[in-house]
Amino acid sequence: MLTIENLCAFYGKIQALHNVNIEVGDHEIVALVGSNGAGKTTILNSISGYTTTTGSVRYNGEEISKKKSHRISRMGILHVPEGRHVFPGLTVEQNLTVGTVAWGGVRLSKGNLQEDLRNVYNIFPRLEERKKQLAWSLSGGEQQMLALGRALMGRPKLLLLDEPSMGLAPIIIDEVFVKIKEINQRLGTPVLLVEQNARRALKASDRAYVIERGKITLSGPSADLLRDERVREAYLGKRKTNSPQEKGAV
């Protein structure tokens, strides 16, 4: 579905990505794992047309690296950025309705509006309960669900998610990742997931890439990377032991 080859990205004269190669197949969740500043968000921005790039980004065989961002979104590649960015003065349902419209007022989906709302409410019942509330009054977790639901209103063929767990309590993070899995499994929507919580990302995804300083350094099935000592040391923390010293530590 998505094939990235030799992708380089630039912010002015600064090169942020170096010959990145990534693939996302149908129905997959693929994670990008790495530390802050490694280039994870830049990859998503490059796919969405927000960054100056060289190299190739192909979607269903069509080169999209030179297309404008609004044309990319109309192709079904929808991006949920870091930080949620809901419209605080609009109701939940108004926020969802905004998700059906691309730049220039063109409807992203040819589906029925009420049908699209029903699909979102089936996955996020809490949004239906709060559909008349203003978005500013929602909790952080509810706002993240609203951001995901708004993207679903455009019937995405590929969903790009940037740090969906940021700023959320652990119990809410669990719920958000359950919903991401449900979107993938119920709707068959492929997901490219950027997540600093490496353990969470690897457990939720089918395959993953590790990026360091703008370069892909490891890739493979997520279950394998969870067991890889290099990944464990760098991103998952050292395995706990039951030594007497540890048990007695304060």
TrEMBL record:
ABC transporter domain location: 2-238
Keyword terms, alphabetized: Amino-acid transport, ATP-binding, Nucleotide-binding, Transport
Domain of life, per lineage: Bacteria
Signal peptide: none
Alphabetized GO MF terms: ATP binding; ATP hydrolysis activity; branched-chain amino acid transmembrane transporter activity
Keyword Transcription regulation: no
Database matches in SMART domains: AAA
Gene Ontology terms describing biological process: L-amino acid transport
Gene3D superfamilies: P-loop containing nucleotide triphosphate hydrolases (3.40.50.300)
UniProt keyword annotation of Cell division present: no
Family: Belongs to the ABC transporter superfamily.
Full protein name: ABC transporter ATP-binding protein
Species name: Candidatus Pullichristensenella excrementigallinarum
Native organism taxonomy: Bacteria, Bacillati, Bacillota, Clostridia, Candidatus Pullichristensenella
